[in-house]
Specification:
The chain is an alpha+beta fold. It has helices at about 20-25, 50-60, 85-100, 130-145, 150-175; strands at about 10, 15, 35-40, 65-70, 75-80, 105-110, 120.
Length: about 180
């Protein structure tokens, strides 16, 4: 807020604390930790404002993983693109959380169509079921004991196995129903 717009200190019989007014004046809208990634094949490139509008939709519906925009020339696909360090930051937060709060025994991350549910624990403080294995691959890459190509192949294998396990679990649930009943 500009200095000229600051209240005088009294409004409708109340009084504002100068420290609170200063704090509120410094607040900035928080941006999500991701940006919209648009991909398309055969479709016209996105028009002005489309990226922002799709980003706002994804922001308002956090459970929506992606959007498909249909055009006369093809489809555009919009997904969230997180910085490469986002998952490492989540793992770091989990480790801190478990260390600072010994009464917390787990944090469950729900499954998706491509990833099974996983509960992080003090012994396994990773958001993903493959967290330990992924951390080992990353450490090997950083140490130079594997090439980037080898690391990519190891990650593909790691996540393909999880996708297969998720599909098998969903197939079993489809046969028994959501509560394990036929």
């Amino acid at each position: 807020m500009a200095e000229a717009e600051m209240p005088s200190g009294e409004e409708e019989g109340g009084q504002y604390d100068a420290a609170v007014i200063a704090f509120l004046g410094e607040l900035r809208p928080q941006r999500p930790p991701w940006q919209v990634l648009l991909t398309w094949a055969g479709a016209a490139p996105p028009g002005p404002g489309l990226n922002e509008d799709l980003g706002r939709i994804l922001d308002l519906f956090p459970g929506t993983n992606f959007l498909t925009v249909h055009t006369a020339e093809g489809c555009l696909h919009a997904t969230r693109d997180f910085p490469s360090n986002a998952t490492q930051e989540v793992d770091d937060i989990l480790a801190r959380l478990f260390q600072a709060n010994p009464e917390v025994t787990g944090v469950t991350f729900p499954g998706t169509a491509t990833r099974s549910a996983h509960t992080a624990t003090p012994e396994d403080p990773f958001w993903s079921a493959q967290g330990k294995a992924g951390a080992a691959i990353t450490a090997a890459l950083e140490a130079g004991t594997v090439t980037p190509g080898q690391a990519i192949e190891q990650f593909k294998h790691l996540y393909a196995a999880d996708a297969a396990a998720t599909a098998a679990s969903e197939a079993a649930q489809d046969q028994t129903g959501p509560l394990g009943q036929p």
